[in-house]
Write a structure and sequence with these properties.
The chain has one domain (2-41). The chain is 74% helix and 0% strand. It has helices spanning 2-10, 15-19, 23-42.
């Protein structure tokens, strides 16, 4: 979960915004973050 917070805080989200999300919404954000990181690795940005 730390990576989720770290990733989205870097994108300008506030902790309270993430905390207000349901577990399901956090899972969707986590999946989105993982896919974004995979794309970044694929193109050599990470």
């Amino acid at each position: 979960m730390f990576l989720l917070y770290h990733h989205y805080i870097q994108k300008g989200w506030k902790i309270a915004e993430i905390d207000a999300l349901s577990y399901f919404e956090k899972e969707l954000l986590m999946a989105s973050m993982i896919e974004e990181r995979k794309r970044m690795i694929k193109v050599g940005l990470l």
